[in-house]
Each structure stands twice: as C-alpha cells, then as structure tokens.
Design brief:
By secondary structure, the protein is mainly α. The chain has 8 helices and no strands. The chain has one domain: Alpha Horseshoe (Serine Threonine Protein Phosphatase 5, Tetratricopeptide repeat), CATH 1.25.40.
Length: 135
C-alpha cells in the first residue's frame, strides 16, 4: 500500500494539478513493484501514470518506454483499461517524438481495439482526431 498504491494515487493527483515532474518523483517508490500484481490487480497503473506524466513533460521517449512496459506484460495486465490505453499513450509518445509511422500504427491498434466503442467517448474522439492529423 505504502510503496505502490499511495504513491500512484498521489502521482495522479499531482498530474491533475499540472505538476508532472512531482508525479514522476512520487512514482519512484513504486518502481521495484510495478511489474507485479502486488496491487491494482496487475493493472500496472504506476507505469501508466508515469507515462502520462512524461507526455505532459514532452518527453516522448521516456513516455514510450513506460507504455511499452504495459504492452510487454499483457498477461499480467489482462483486461484492465491500461492494456488498451497504453496503445494510445504510446501513439502520443511516438507522435511527440516525430515518428509518424510508429504513431500511426499505434493509433490504428488503439482504434481497432475500440472499433465498437461509443463514438461519443471523449478519449475515443480525441484519438480519432489525433490520428487524422497524422494522415
């Protein structure tokens, strides 16, 4: 609880306060445990929140590395929302780095996974708009 859950919740709060650097700092405590199912039932929220923080800091390579951790551990993540949202996160990270080929592929992966989603879901609409800009 003290090493994973609390720092992750605090990091998300700092991210919502537009303080991504503090978010990254808080998540250092979770690093030794984040690729386990010790908390959050394996959803891997620490790398997800850290990836979002790196996106906010405009550090595309660091963000991509965090989202890749989630994509590399699909068996651990299972049906958690971070499994799908990591595709969008890595697409945004590649776009931030200027790698439009990888960004387009990642956006396509996300949109394929959400092909039956309600068209009014804000994250889906945002992803479609971002993908369209890459075309």
């Amino acid at each position: 609880m003290q090493s994973v859950v609390l720092p992750t919740v605090q990091a998300q709060i700092e991210l919502s306060r537009n303080n991504p650097q503090r978010s990254v700092e808080l998540l250092q405590a979770a690093a030794p445990y984040e690729l386990t199912d010790i908390s959050f039932r394996g959803c891997l929220y620490p790398p997800y929140v850290r990836g979002e923080a790196y996106l906010a800091l405009k550090q595309g390579a660091a963000a991509a590395a965090e989202f890749q951790k989630i994509l590399d551990h699909r068996g651990l993540v299972r049906a958690c929302e971070t499994a799908v949202l990591a595709h969008l996160g890595i697409a945004r990270a590649y776009a931030l780095q200027g790698d439009t080929v990888k960004a387009r592929a990642a956006y396509q992966d996300f949109l394929t996974l959400w092909k039956d989603a309600d068209l009014d879901i804000p994250v889906y609409r945002a992803a479609k708009a971002e993908y369209a800009k890459l075309q």
